[in-house]
Amino acid sequence: MSKQWFLEGYVGDSDRIQRIPLSHFPCVVGRVSDSGFAVPKGDVSRKHAELYWDGTTLTVTDLGSTNGTFVNRNRIATLTTVDHGRSR
Predict the structure, then answer these.
(1) pTM to 2 decimals?
(2) DSSP letter, residue 47
(3) Taking the domain 24-87, which CATH number applies?
C-alpha cells in the first residue's frame, strides 16, 4: 500500500493550519518559485529543506536554513526520519 505524505503548517498569511499533499520526491522546500514546494515567506530560506521518499522511508534534512527546520515542533540538526506524525 502506498503512503501519501503531507506538509502541514501555517502557509502564507493564513492563521489556519493547512495540509498540502506532496506529489514528487526529492522535494526541496524553499522561498524561491522553482522549489519543489515554494513557501513565499520571509522566514523561509531560498532552499530551506529537502524531503526524500525512497518508497519505504521519508527523510528530511535542513539545507542550512537561517531559521531552522522543524519536524513536529522539534528543530532538527541532522537527517531525520519521519513516520506517521512523529520523527525519530
Answers:
(1) 0.78
(2) T
(3) 2.60.200.20
